[in-house]
Amino acid sequence: MKIALQVKPAHRKxxxxxxxxxxxxxxxxxxxxxxxxxxxxWLSKGNAPASLPSGPPIWICxxxxxxxxxxxxxxxxxxEIQIRDLDQTVIGNPAHDLLRLGLxxxxxxxxxxxxxxxxxxxxEAMIDGYLGExxxxxxxxxVNQIAPIQKVMQEAFxxxxxxxxxxxxxxxxxxxxxxxxxxxxxxxxxxHLRKFFEGExxxxxxxxxxxxxxxQPIRMLDAAYWMKGCSSLGRLRYAVLVxxxxxxxxxxxxxxxxxxxxxxxxxxxxxxxxxxNAERVVCGAMxxxxxxxxxxxxSTFAGRQVVVRELRPQDLKFELAALTQQEAILSARxxxxxxxxxxxxxxxxxxxKAWAKQxxxxxxxxxxxxxxxxxxxxxxxxxxxASYLEHCRQYALSRVG
Length: 401
Hints:
Distance between the termini: 15 Å
Shape: globular
Number of helices: 14
Largest sheet: 6 strands, antiparallel
């Protein structure tokens, strides 16, 4: 589907829905990434084995697929692989993150046309990487052994503000170029955004990010409606270019404003979690991905709950395709260790030890990965493959009808 350079606000929903369906029809792996609800429907219908562990209630990603893991920079420019998207974060069962990650890894293996035995090895490596973060034997994973990840990490380390500017704004005039991703705003939207960045909360965030004095002027230079992502398509989303300092010596910041909606992930019983969805997302980010969380702010915009986030040039995502068996197995261990680190930092030593013991006690004889993980991933793959094919059929019918 070709997208016009100018999409009228009245037509946004139709175009966004079409794009979402197109993206999800592009591959089974893309379908899994864009359909969190399907995963939790499977879980709620009692498909999970009775041996599925119930871990300590902590902040979990809630949508823990490999597309939501990648390099993230903190305020000082240090880069780590962390969880990049926290829309679905809740205080819940950490086993749900393991299940979702296992499904994503299995689908990535299938997209790379790897044999089923590779998936078994990947799940073994995954649980090994996760358990390593819960114990004293943890060690840094060597990304240099995984060519696709090494390439992205090297790019992230080398990227500066000018690289983000070259991608997002015009060189001469500081504007956001309209096109496939960025669409024009209504006058009301532009005015709402202008007033938003004149407000105290937004100004404080930008000054904090830019390490600017309170006396320095801050103003919105340009803004656009942003078509981005897959599962988030259809939500309110804006990209905003902000200038800090005197007009002829501006420092720039790119800001993402994204609507926060109710999470599909189930919440653990009797936990104290913010009822406000934007506050929930930021709290989860601070717990799971502090590099990202420190650049986020919960707020409201046009009567909706939104998360305001600064974009950094080092924030990239992994697009893993055509993996070798070794790369797939090493990737599984690496990604699981990232999730394990995010979970473990919320647990006391005793809780980490007890959770690791519970996971180890459920291993099957002759298979390092727990039986509940293998059984669940096999069931989830079958469920999502069938659902994906039906999605493709419906999409094809809508094109010819």
